[in-house]
């Protein structure tokens, strides 16, 4: 048996792909609009902007902050040392400086007790990475961002549907809605996975959302008017339609994963 049988997992969603192929409309259409609306509602943010992949989502967030004057070349972004390279590449591509902070040995997320000592006059943001389906956000991190005037950016490539918890253990907001902006990857092996590469940015910031959408469309917010030096980073109709169909099943799918994980842990734990 395959560890991750994508053919079997994706088979129930082939109808969404067929509908797009039959429509003859493959970019910037109704499927993309539906998914962006539904995913924003699911995450509980005002905006969702589809893009080509998770790395582009992170890169576009930082690029937009530079365009808005929030950051400039050489500014620093605090990021966990335990992360995938995409978190770092998005920072360095924007000519910003990553400042690595070690993880908590128990949770493997960024150690929030070490963040404050890494802050310098050039620090402009903290990027948290929700690794292994766990929430990296803590109230201490939120308080640090408030006190130092830092942007909080979430790398939510591995935690679609994950919730933060309050101090008493009650569920709170979803990852992707906890900071100023969040990047999402829908690589096929993710728990919300496309049939290829795809990504998105979620945010409540109207100005940031408008700018990110333009930057991912060659720098254009109006047809053939290019106000920014942008790039081509758009989610296509096929991926959007598939993700929209899968989104309806995401919570149930996550519950099955948790159940199987707990069953596996109990089966292999020494007695």
Strand and helix map with partners:
Layout: H1 6-10, H2 14-23, H3 30-43, E1 47-51, H4 54-67, E2 76-80, H5 85-93, E3 97-101, E4 123-129, H6 139-148, E5 151-155, E6 163-165, E7 171-174, E8 181-185, E9 199-203, H7 206-215, E10 220-222, E11 225-226, H8 237-247, H9 250-268
Parallel strand pairs: 2-3, 2-4, 4-5, 5-8
Antiparallel strand pairs: 1-9, 6-7, 8-9, 10-11
Helix pairs in contact: 2-8, 3-8, 4-5, 4-7
Provide a descriptive summary of the structure in words.
The protein has 271 residues and is of the alpha/beta class. Helices cover 38% and strands 18% of the residues. It is built from nine helices and eleven strands. The strands form three sheets. Strands 1-9-8-5-4-2-3 form a seven-stranded mixed β-sheet, with helices on both faces. α2 (14-23) runs antiparallel to α8 (237-247), α3 (30-43) packs parallel to α8 (237-247) and α4 (54-67) packs across α7. The protein is globular. It starts with 5 loop residues before the first helix and ends with a helix. Residues 265-271 have low confidence and may be disordered.
